[in-house]
Amino acid sequence: MSQIAINTSQNVNINFNIASVGERMIAFFIDLFIKIAYGIAVLYIFFTVLDLGYLLQGMDYWSIGAVYIMLLFPTVVYPVVLESLMEGQTPGKKVMKIRVVKIDGYQAGFGDYLIRWVFRIIDTSFAGVVGLVSMIVSKNNQRLGDIASGTAVISLKNKITISHTILENIREDYVPTFPQVIALSDNDMRIIKDNYLKALRIDDRQVIRKLSDKIKSILKLEVDPTKMTERQFIGVIIKDYNYYTGKDS
């Protein structure tokens, strides 16, 4: 499996496995199935459950087309919306454990996902041959949208054991949550871990809260407190850092 070296803000190169063409195609078809299922469900509700087909009677082709576009619009913006909300993933990518990342080491943003989405028109032309050929011939399996946005799709299936980490044991099937941790240095992470463990030993909730807030501030993260406690958040950050760096102690 080919790899890509991403340079972090601390000028540290981290190697990631590039998602294979096969993985990306399977993810694409999973997402396509979801979109088709959505389309069938919406049209069934519109025409059968709500029996609103009569509204189209007497309309010209343009008006009818506009109605269909409104009903099926979520399938059109599906990739850019979900990649923005799921930090570079769609349900298909999540199932295949692959993610969109910026090659320059920064977290991909809405603008990057939007560029990928716009170029999807070209990539999917000729039954997707253009995008497929681009992924095959490009160095990092990039389609035109990836090249234009400076992104690549990486695999999250790295096999990592305790011998490869500096902080904590990680399961082989571990899937990271915050790719932004690559912006931290080894020294940053050692400080985080040391302070976190000390605070845990004496149950210093104030230190844990301040540490959590500091990490979120540095990495520009927003975490829903109802879904992840401060202690869980710091624990995930430590594991994610080990996953991405694979440093030896």
**Which class of secondary structure composition applies to the elements?**
mainly alpha
> Percent range for helical residues?
40-55%
Summed over residues and divided by their number, the pLDDT gives a mean of 85
The total strand number stands at 4
How much of the polypeptide forms β-strand, as a percent range? 5-15%
Major beta-sheet overview: 2 strands, antiparallel
Unreliable runs? 159-166
Order of helices and strands: EEHHHEHHHEHHH
* Gap between N and C termini: 26 Å
The count of helical stretches stands at 9
Q: What is the general shape?
A: globular
Order of strands, widest sheet: 1-2
Radius of gyration: 22 Å
Could you name the key traits of this structure?
single chain; 249 residues; mainly alpha; two-stranded antiparallel sheet; 9 helices; 4 strands; 55% helix; globular
Q: What does it look like?
A:
The protein is globular and about 75 Å long. With 249 residues, the protein is mainly α. The two termini are 26 Å apart. About 3% of the residues have low confidence. A hairpin with a 5-residue loop joins strand 1 and strand 2. The protein is built from nine helices and four strands. 55% of the residues lie in helices and 8% in strands. The strands form two sheets. It has a two-stranded antiparallel ribbon. Strands 3-4 form a two-stranded antiparallel ribbon.
